[in-house]
Amino acid sequence: MNMGTKRNFAIKAEIRDLTAKAFTFVAQKTMYGGKQISTGDTIFIFASENEGGCGLIAYGIVASAEAVPRMPGVARQTPRVSITVTRMKLAKRRLGRNELRHFSDWNDGRPETELNFKFYRQATNKIVGLSDEAAAFLRQYFT
After folding, report:
1. Nearest-angstrom CA–CA distance, 67 and 62
2. Strand ranges (DSSP E) for the chain?
3. Cα dist. 65→39, 41, 77, 85 in Å?
4. Using an 8 Å Cβ cutoff, are 141 and 93 in contact?
5. In the prediction, which pLDDT does 130 show?
6. pLDDT of residue 70
7. Model confidence pTM above 0.70
8. β 126-129/80-90 pair status
9. Half-sphere exposure (CA, 13 Å, Cβ side) for 75?
């Protein structure tokens, strides 16, 4: 899948153990290029506020990624992927829906707006691809 180029992704999902050393996400929806995720990619992990989470909690490296086969006979299906992630670092500051909600000028090019658009405009849990600018912005939360 990944031809040597490491990419950046983010996932918003239900997280039960916020300090786990590894995470497994089964049959997650993908949007905005999320279906391209593969082993070795960086992923920023958001604990979904829809399930009582607090937003950005960690980042890690994708240890495995496998596309979930489409169900036969169903015309419209969101691509799904199962991944395992090795956690690298926990976030040091809060970043979630409340901090991103004011970034809603969808064409302003800001990384905060990209995150708000991809995660909170349509609030479903999902894996999304990130721009280099959004990944650089998120890295600030780990120093």
Report:
1. 13
2. 8-13, 22-31, 42-47, 55-67, 80-90, 126-129
3. 6, 10, 19, 9
4. yes
5. 98
6. 85
7. yes
8. unpaired
9. 0
d(CA 38, CA 112): 24
pLDDT at 27 over 50: yes
Q: How far apart are CA 128 and CA 93, in angstroms?
A: 21
Write the CA distances from 96 to 37, 54, 64, 99, integer angstroms: 22, 6, 26, 5
- CA–CA separation, 100 vs 50, rounded Å? 15
Distance CA 108, CA 33 (A): 20
Residues 75-103 pLDDT 10s: 788 899 999 999 999 999 999 999 999 99
**Percentage of the chain lying above the pLDDT 90 cut:** 85
Each residue's pLDDT tens digit, 112-130: 999 999 999 888 999 999 9
**Gap between the Cα atoms of 43 and 58, Å rounded:** 9
Rounded to an integer, what distance in angstroms lies between the CA atom of residue 76 and that of residue 13? 22
Calpha distance 113→2 (Å, rounded): 27
Distance from C-alpha of 42 to C-alpha of 64, rounded to nearest angstrom: 12
